[in-house]
Specification:
By secondary structure, the protein is α/β, with parallel strands linked by helices. The protein is 45% helix and 12% strand. It is globular and about 60 Å long. It binds iron/sulfur cluster (SF4). Its cofactor is [4Fe-4S] cluster; [2Fe-2S] cluster.
Length: 354
């Protein structure tokens, strides 16, 4: 094993700081031994800072209608080969109540960018969930106005997930017609200002993305001091302009996850459904490389197959009860436990005893 690799991993595990050049080096282990060391150290940092608990967040994908045209995404407005749906409010509330009965303490409300959901409509759903259930709410509904974000927050939303997708501004512009990286950053700043626990995140293996870009992604999230970092592989979807591109690999995704854990010890890191799609034990592997969150799908099953951001997504036919049991077994199988608290920001907990 290269001495330099060993000492940089040790430095990252102890001080949680690396320069961009150092991070680029650590992101590229030379062999199996170096890779194992990186994963082992990330797992140790996760254990020291987050413990054995895995936080479950139940996701309700309540609308697959999207007015954007992101080049990689199956929900993009120009994809006419998708059945579009909006789940009626009553059904969303039932799904949330069902998840609560199964022990979920966080409900994630996720959709495409669908302006039919005015602030009033979304606030009504948020309020009803918060009034009826003792859960935290994460919103993931894309770019909105400052005023909308304020109303959602006042209605009771606790967290907001707005992935930055890539910190390479030129690549961001190519992938997101009509959108700008600057606007994305402003929104992340607004969300922080409004007191949300904020999640950003990036894709791994995008066409044209370099290792240096991935290092920038991690350093960007560290600088933004995010509470959660959603890092997952790019998986090409046949009905998009990037359908023929090659996707991100499990190995590279795990390396990025491990480095993210080394540099951001208190961040919540999900083992994404997308890594579970790349490999039957992808989520377990991610949980052993620094991840501490799993986000099972609790969308009513008849809608699930149509929330097709990427193809062959796992768990589209599982009922929430089965899914909950399956996840529990997977977590126990690697010696970990399911958390029983809300899973709020670890940074808030440590810094402000939240
Ligand atoms: S990534 Fe989000 S905003 Fe972009 S097309 Fe897909 S659902 Fe819409």
């Amino acid at each position: 094993m290269r001495e330099k690799f060993k000492s940089l991993v040790a430095k990252a595990a102890e001080w949680h700081e690396l320069t961009k050049e150092e991070l680029i080096y650590v992101l590229q282990p030379e062999d199996h031994k170096e890779r194992e060391l990186l994963f082992k150290k990330a797992d140790e940092v996760r254990q020291n800072y987050c413990g054995s608990d895995v936080h479950l967040r139940g996701i309700i994908e309540f609308s697959n209608i999207c007015e954007r045209n992101c080049l990689y995404c199956g929900l993009r407005g120009d994809n006419k080969r998708l059945n579009r749906y909006r789940i009626p409010e009553e059904e969303i509330l039932e799904a949330a109540a069902g998840a609560y009965r199964l022990g979920y303490k966080t409900i994630v409300l996720q959709s495409g960018e669908d302006s039919w959901y005015t602030a009033d409509r979304l606030c009504s759903i948020i309020r009803k969930i918060k009034e009826g259930l003792d859960v935290a709410i994460t919103l993931c509904v894309g770019e909105r106005t400052y005023e909308d974000y304020r109303e959602f927050r006042n209605a009771g939303a606790d967290r907001y997930l707005l992935k930055h997708e890539t910190a390479n501004g030129a690549l961001y512009t190519r992938l997101h017609p009509g959108m700008s990286f600057r606007a994305r950053i402003s929104r992340l700043e607004w969300l922080k200002e409004l007191g949300y626990q904020v999640g950003a995140g990036n894709m791994v293996g995008l066409p044209g993305q370099t290792i240096a870009d991935l290092a920038d992604d991690i350093l960007f999230m560290k600088r933004m001091d995010v509470d959660m970092a959603g890092i997952g592989p790019f998986i090409p979807h046949g009905n998009t302009p990037l359908g023929k591109a090659s996707g991100g690999t499990l190995d590279l995704t795990l390396r990025v996850l491990a480095c993210a854990r080394l540099l951001m010890p208190l961040v919540h890191l999900p083992a994404t459904t997308a890594v579970g799609t790349l490999h039957p034990y992808g989520r377990e592997k991610a949980l052993q490389c620094g991840a501490n969150v799993v986000m099972p799908n609790i969308t009513p099953s008849r809608y699930r197959k149509d929330y097709e951001i990427y193809p062959n997504k796992i768990c589209v036919n599982e009922e929430p009860e089965r899914c909950r049991g399956c996840i529990q077994n997977r977590i126990s199988s690697i010696g970990r436990t399911v958390a029983s608290d809300y899973g709020h920001s670890l940074k808030l907990k440590v810094r402000h005893n939240y």
